[in-house]
């Protein structure tokens, strides 16, 4: 699917490491939309480390999540 020209490419989060390694420093995407962004919050995870490599080549990063982000114990 990556060999075909398209406006939008959709991959699952398990393939983030693969696609980052595949393109390396020739990252062709100017925008990334992360669904379930909370699954990328651990900075020690391979998924997070891979995605971090794309930052110099990406203009926009949009994070989507349905996970609440409490301000304190009263918000839970």
Automatic annotation (TrEMBL):
Keyword ATP-binding part of the UniProt annotation: yes
Iron found in the keyword field: no
All residue ranges annotated as the Helicase ATP-binding domain in the record: 1-76
Tree of life domain: Bacteria
Matching PROSITE patterns: HELICASE_ATP_BIND_1
GO molecular function: ATP binding; helicase activity
Entry keyword set: ATP-binding, Helicase, Hydrolase, Nucleotide-binding
Record protein name field: ATP-dependent helicase
Lineage of producing organism: Bacteria, Bacillati, Bacillota, Bacilli, Lactobacillales
